Amino acid sequence: MASTPTTEHDNPARIEPRRTDFGMMAVTIMAAMGLVFGFVAVAIDGDSDDGVSADGGASAVSLTEFALGPDPVTVDVGGTLAVSNDGSQVHNLRVADTELITADLLGGESAALDVSALEPGEYEMFCEIAGHKDAGMVGSLVVGAGGGDAGHSSSGGEVDYEALDAAMTDSMLAFPAETEGSGNLAIEPEILDDGTKRFELTAAITPWEVEPGKFVDAWTYNGIVPGPWIKVDVGDKVEVHIQNDLPMGTDIHWHGIRTPNAMDGVAPFTQDLISSGDDFLYAFTAEKKAVGMYHAHHHGQMQVPNGLFAAFQIGDLDLPRGRTISGVTIPQDLVVADEIPMVLNDAGVIGLSLNGKSFPATEPYAVKQGDWILVHYYNEGLQSHPMHQHQFPQLVVAKDGIPLDNPYFADTVNVAPGERYSVLINADDPGTWVWHCHILNHVESDDGMFGMVTALVVS
């Protein structure tokens, strides 16, 4: 029989998208959401100047996490922008719809951006580092007296607090929003005569609805983001046949999975590049239990953030049943009500997202009071993400698929790029409990809630 990602009491509903009974769930969430989510992050700069003069008459622009200011920036026709990175991460500055962009700047570095070619008017400018624009690094550039009134934002000048309140409330009450497509769907293998489990994948560029009405050209396995969730048993012979319908070459690396070197998926070291229109067969034995990933390695900086990532699991994770941890005894007969892969991303066309969707299109997880759920965090992004579950401590039971000798409770679990953390959550209190990355610019903006937010709905 084919191995599928079911729970310990065989939850066949997990094979299909779990977006059911949206009307009833939406009513429940809308009634509780405003009482649950207790933060609204608004960054306000008290400086009301619309432009700042730097040495030499240039207009200064400051880049920080995650804002650029002042907003708007004004500059004379034929002028220059003095751009400084006053933050700790790498940033740059681009003028939209032009070729004008600084080099990537480390914290403390600066650069001059010649904007003398721009005609008088108003332009958008932003940080082009993946995910930074969505996190708030966007503003207006007004060139010359003809630029007009660029308005004000929370980066400086007058703030419309009532509008901020309304935007936040409206965005939260839109959850959960239905969109086309669901990621992480289990894939059924073909069982060959010798028992080998063979999976078919096609890599292609596919329209993907990240949030309501926002379609992007995602790089997908089998048309979904994340790609199909593959789960096999220890000892299984595995074959994965990949057809490359992308416009460029690709490969597949089995991250956290033991394979022969020839199957490691790093062209041209371990195999030839799978050129556009070609195919390749990966074959290996699932040697030991693992919570791993599979993703492109060739031009990974492009292909992975744009969607070529997915979960790969071997066997069921060993859980600390019967152990007492920080005064809490884990039931000896614990049954996992649901096993949830949650893939984190912050870059590419997918952007700040959970399982390929941005709030309010993220999937809420409905459980019953007293249920235990097992969550696997996979970070396929470019930044670390501290994942916070309201109300319920997360029992960290494994790191990168390796069970911990000393599991521990945490309300926030920081997941770095490439890492996997497996946590048990006991949902013992009814209500709608928000679940999000605790880098607040990854979940909130002046336009309301977005990005890496979902909810655990306990009935």
Largest sheet: 6 strands, mixed
Count the E strands.
32
Regions with little confidence, pLDDT below 50 for 5+ residues: 1-20, 30-56, 146-156
Could you tell me the radius of gyration in angstroms?
A: 24 Å
- Percentage of residues assigned to helices: under 10%
Main-sheet strand order equals 21-20-23-28-25-26
Amino- and carboxy-terminal Cα gap: 34 Å
Structural class: mainly beta
The chain-level mean pLDDT equals 87
Describe the global form: globular
Q: How many separate helices?
A: 3
Which percent band covers the strand fraction?
35-45%
Keyphrases for this structure?
459 residues; mainly beta; 5-stranded mixed sheet; 32 strands; 7% helix; globular
Structure explained in plain terms:
The chain is mostly beta strands and 459 residues long. Helix content is 7%, strand content 38%. The protein is globular and about 70 Å long.
Helix and strand topology:
Layout: H1 22-36, E1 59-64, E2 67-69, E3 73-75, E4 80-85, E5 94-95, E6 110-114, E7 121-126, E8 138-143, H2 161-173, E9 190-191, E10 197-211, E11 214-221, E12 230-232, E13 237-244, E14 253-255, E15 279-285, E16 290-295, H3 300-303, E17 309-314, E18 324-325, E19 328-329, E20 336-347, E21 351-354, E22 365-367, E23 371-379, E24 385-389, E25 394-399, E26 402-410, E27 412-415, E28 420-427, E29 431-437, E30 444-445, E31 448-449, E32 453-458
Parallel strand pairs: 1-4, 3-8, 10-13, 12-17, 20-23, 22-32
Antiparallel strand pairs: 1-2, 4-6, 5-7, 7-8, 9-10, 10-11, 13-15, 14-16, 16-17, 18-19, 20-21, 23-28, 24-27, 24-29, 25-26, 25-28, 29-32, 30-31
